Amino acid sequence: MQLLTFDTLPSTNDYIREHILEFADNTAVFADKQTNGKGRVGKKWESPNGQLCFSMLVKNGDPIGITHLFAVIVCEVLRKFCSKKVQVGIKWCNDIVIDIDGNYKKICGILCEKIGTDIIVGIGINLNVADSYFAEHGLPNAGSLHLETDKSVIRDLVIAEYEYHNKPFVDVLSRYKTLCVNVGKPVKVIYPTRIVYGNAVDITDKGELYCADENGGYFTVNSGEVSVRGITDYV
Ligand code: BT5
User: Which residues constitute the domain of residue 128?
Assistant: First the structure.
């Protein structure tokens, strides 16, 4: 694995994209700060000091499997560092959240971008960001772990867990299901042109969110362009 580190980059995902032909499988790019961090479908990702941001190049990857795998790895790594009071979980499909007394906050986002047959996986974790930062930037659902741990320790563990991973997708999915905080809860699914209400009942074997609708039927949520929320809160 090759690790490139920078003080500042616009976006670690964009840096890999710009150099994709030069980089080998598993190249990782880390920046202490990003000035133009990206979320899905053109959304902005705020990357203040105190956030761990890095990206990895996965050659010939499956974008769904990779998103779920990294969500599981990041969630399990962060659980090792947090006190029992702070429940770290996965919010379908690419967020890591913390639940403090029923109040969910997004502390990490994962962005998987497919470039030909390759995938760029970008991870941003709010390790130690002041809560006032999120209020000032209009992010009421964002939160921080308030962990003093050195960024490189968590980054290197996530990369190592990925490199040593050799489990089939079904095993990843069963871990994903146990960590996913949506299952068993009411959900509001926000499509580009409509909103659908339901209850999340399971994760399918393709990693989709499987929901019961209000009329006794079922539907699956699989698009990267939807947002899933709780009925009144973030989860
Ligand atoms: C994501 O998108 O959550 C993917 C974020 C990926 C960031 C990493 S950092 C390293 C790499 N380089 C990049 O340029 N990106 C990746 P999405 O699910 O679309 O969520 C985006 C939404 O999250 C925004 O619209 C905000 O509502 C919220 N948000 C923005 N910044 C946040 C932050 N720091 N913490 C929590 N929520 C945030």
Answer: 3-179
Q: In ligand 1, which atom is closest to the CA atom of 51?
A: 34
Q: Which helix (H) or strand (E) holds 4?
A: strand 3-9
Which tens digits make up the pLDDT trace of 159-217? 999 999 888 889 999 999 999 999 999 999 999 899 999 999 999 999 999 999 989 99
168, 57: one domain: yes
What is the Rg, in whole angstroms, of the alpha carbon atoms belonging to the chain?
A: 17
Same domain, 170 and 207: no
pLDDT tens-digit profile of 55-98? 999 999 887 789 999 999 999 999 999 988 899 999 999 999 99
Residue environment code for 16-40, b if the CB has 16+ CB neighbours within 10 A, otherwise e: bbeeeeebeeebbbbbbebeebbeb
- Ligand 1 within 6 A of CB of 17: no
HEC assignment per residue over 97-129: EEEECCEEEEEEEEEEEEECCEEEEEEEEECCC
Pair 209, 108 in one domain: no
Which residues are registered as beta bridge partners of 88? 98
Considering the entire predicted model, what is its pTM? Answer: 0.96
Closest atom of ligand 1 to 13 CA is: 12
